[in-house]
Protein 1
Amino acid sequence: MTSRTNIRGIGPIPKIPKGVSMKKIIEKSCDVCGNIVKTPEYGGGRCKTCGWIDDPHQREYPNCKNSNNLVSLNRAKLLWQEGKKLLPDFAELLDMMRRGFEFDFLLHGRKYEVLLDKDDRWRLLCIGSESFQIFDSVDEFANGASISDIPLSICWEEISVVDYME
Ligand SMILES: [Zn+2]
């Protein structure tokens, strides 16, 4: 017998009690850009205009970051007004690393991963390449990580997608 796993592949799908609909879709205005977004009643719908994922928790705590959205609601509004992507800046990224979050990102069409190994060291890998960089601490990563000899802190302006992995 095979057991079904959820989309992240980390365990069984939680059972939904009978009579509870998880699928009720509502239309509301996006908390960041104000355009109409279709979202399940309890959040999770992604705005097609700005990319914000509707999140009732962040509506209540607009300075909170979680893994749905990579920046806080207040920060997202500022970035949107400035015409920037809703992505964490390098300092915010380091902050998440100190909290133990691994992540991946895209830069110029290539995918990179930053992972914590079993010795608590950080590795920067480029997917599809054999080489990697290794750092003893987040501070070392901050000062030493580079892509094509350009410090990551500088390349970071040009990344397109970031995902945290828990
Ligand atoms: Zn939006």
Protein 2
Amino acid sequence: MTEPKLPLLTRHFSLAELTVTNTGLDNWPSDVIRARLRQLAQYLEQVRERCGGRALIITSGYRSTAVNRAVGGSPTSAHLKGYAADIRIHRGLDSDLIGAIRSVGGFDQLIYEPSRGIVHVSIDPRQRGQVKTLTARGYVNGIDNWGWHRDGGRKPPSPSR
Ligand SMILES: [Zn+2]
């Protein structure tokens, strides 16, 4: 028996990366979702390029209903539709990554989550262009780089977590 192939969607992003989960639950996307993940990977390639070609680490991409429930995701999460990814930049600043996404544009939501050290980006076709930060007090508009500090939050976790 051979393992199922998890092919590259674009030069730097694979289907395995965009369906990653540590829940052990089934997270295989439908054809429709796979097509969206390819679009998402193409988007992430542009972001990667604006980050000077530094690697982007995807901590969550597509989530099946079961996976989304297990990780406490919103029931209307763009992750369920294959439109969203939570990412970190390898050896770079969060602000570089955020700046890169803003300069590429074409997103529906950019949500900075400093307590988790990730940036959520969604390319849902609604294209609302919303930019928010998740702080200890909830979502605030715009980027609040020091929110986690002021709120007594922990330092963002290291990428190995
Ligand atoms: Zn997310």
